[in-house]
Amino acid sequence: MAPAGGGNIKVVVRVRPFNGREIDRGSKCIVEMKDNQTVLTTPDGHGGKGAKTEGPKTFAFDRSYWSFDKAAGNYAEQSHLFDDLGKPLLDNAFQGYNNCIFAYGQTGSGKSYSMMGYGKEIGIIPMICQDMFTRINGIQADDATTKCTVEVSYLEIYNERVRDLLNPSTKGNLKVREHPSTGPYVEDLAKLVVGSFQEIENLMDEGNKARTVAATNMNETSSRSHAVFTLMLTQKKYDAETKMEMEKVAKISLVDLAGSERANSTGATGARLKEGAEINRSLSTLGRVIAALADLSTGAAKKKKGGSQVPYRDSVLTWLLKDSLGGNSMTAMIAAISPADINYDETLSTLRYADSAKRIKNHAVINEDANARMIRELKEELALLRSKLGGGSTGLGGAPVPADEIYDENTPLEKQMVSITNADGTVKKVSKAEIAEQLSQSEKLLTDLNQTWEQKLQKTEEIHKEREAALEELGISIEKGFIGLHTPKKMPHLVNLSDDPLLAEPTFD
Ligand SMILES: Nc1ncnc2c1ncn2[C@@H]1O[C@H](COP(=O)(O)OP(=O)(O)OP(=O)(O)O)[C@@H](O)[C@H]1O
Fold first, then answer.
1. What share of the chain is helix, strand, coil (3-state, %, to 5)?
2. Residue 59 forms beta bridges with which residues?
3. Is the confidence at residue 401, as pLDDT, over 90?
4. What are residue 473's phi and psi, to 5 degrees?
5. Is 111 marked active-site?
6. How far is the CA of 320 from the centre of ligand 1 (A)?
7. Which superkingdom does the taxonomy of this entry point to (predicted)?
8. For 286-326, what is each residue's pLDDT tens digit?
């Protein structure tokens, strides 16, 4: 992880063992790893008949993990990744820095294995959660004046739409918004209070079950969505001398991206093609964001005509990851690759992606008393917005309102244009309708921030009940450790009996 205070994104590569399909096709391993270097050999005959065989391509990363052969002495286990990425991430989070890990790679390359893990081979996300509570218990036992709290959210982005995996009752499309104080956030996303690792584990189980799993031509259980698991760690410490409560907040975003292969290379058609294109919108924008940030870090942007605009807002994923890419966060990327010659093109593209991500610089700062600052800024903003909406002949602090901004009360709000002075001194004209919209968003944010812990707990309990009811209705058993199905309460249904527990659930047509 980058040293505290910021630095480059940390980039690691991990190669998995051959899968069944690769073994059946007699694949050759074309990946080698030497220390931190990953070397990719061009397969014979690549580029067509008569094409000149290119030499091996060498990439240097922060780490190159050899997980090709479990029997090999240098096999990189799940715990290696946790030691190198998870532990420093927790060190930083407890200091009050935001952190992010995201996994990138083609379908079936080992992203979910590294992030969530399978069965007993748990991945970096559960390991981080486990260690977080061990640390919290230690801190609270050592120092009775410190109180730590954890909130969890889990969402997926599918076809550019955001779905809450922990609250199935909020159907459809949640909106991503941005506020100068809080940065990008998802409106109405459930943030559930958790008091132990077991509670997080239950939520993860339920969220993973709710995650959309659609078959593709590449891999029957391929996941077509981006999954974002977020932990919010708050540490409150009461200082007896100053009689003040100090607060440190850290956000940890753990992101499992959809398969990075291009839609057309999987033979997708119709609805699948649209889905591929939308996934590509997020991934291709991620590519452009990474390229623009890499240019900014190396100064290349200045040389380009008009400089380099970072297109965060061009996709939901990049908008949400804005803080993690080039912003206030310490970020690591796990590039997952296949060892097989048949995946050469995708592997090369993943390594190139990872190589450009290495150059991105972030500027993390400690989020001390972030809540208090946000509440103050929001209150100031609300006062300004209310004064602008109110009309009349005086504005905020009794300042006179310009004559051209006083309107007849019958003028629709869309037509009433007023000027707003930004923090940087620039003035922009906006309609009162836009101000009213902003006002309601900011009021919602303020209510969220002002919620007491008891209120949050109560909300968590309500959502928990709703979630259980929603899953029950779909015929999904919510008993911990038991993935089961039963007859859905209301709808007529077909049941898909599959070896894959994620698919062994009632289906609806
Ligand atoms: N490092 C590893 N060691 C052992 N097995 C692995 C490793 N990485 C991946 N696998 C196995 O490879 C298969 C595909 O991995 P995984 O499901 O993690 O891929 P993915 O990149 O998340 O795919 P998708 O895009 O479909 O989510 C799984 O069966 C997994 O158990």
1. 40, 25, 40
2. 38
3. no
4. -65, -35
5. yes
6. 25
7. Eukaryota
8. 888 888 888 887 766 555 555 458 899 999 999 998 888 87
